[in-house]
Amino acid sequence: MSPQTEKQKMLAGELYVASDPELQQDMAQCADWLVRYNNRQASLSERLGAAGENACIRPPFHCDYGYNIFMGDNVFLNFNCIILDVVPVRIGSGTQIGPGVQILAADHPRDPALRQKMLESGRPVTIGENVWIGGGAIILPGITIGDHAIIGAGSVVTHDVASGTTVAGNPARILHRTLPP
User: Domain named Maltose/galactoside acetyltransferase: which ranges (predicted)?
Assistant: First the structure.
């Protein structure tokens, strides 16, 4: 088996070197697209892995690569959202995301020796359908948020959130559970 490229390692969620020339080129292309998108001169479908019907991201918007972001129909992201998409970030149909939300799929080794080598990794983030994420919330790497959940403004989501559950706080804690509609 031939050695994996840094991009292949990144996409697999393995440790990789972010300063790899291929990844730097991908990020530069994404930065060019972001400038055009944030100035309303480019479309979501031009760069994202998928952008469903009526998907909307209000600029300014920031991401690493774009091609790892998959949004269903009628997804809405308000101003100043950040998605670190080194691995897939999936956002289900009908989900509404407030301003300043950070969805962070990028991760770093806990071992200081590995961090010193400038290695990074990623863990996919999945957000279900009809989820509401309040402004300023932070979703950490590897999190799954179930359908119909609510994430309170300013919350830091450190654990998966079950369908129909409302969480808030830092770290986010369960406030209420309901049966999904």
Answer: 7-53
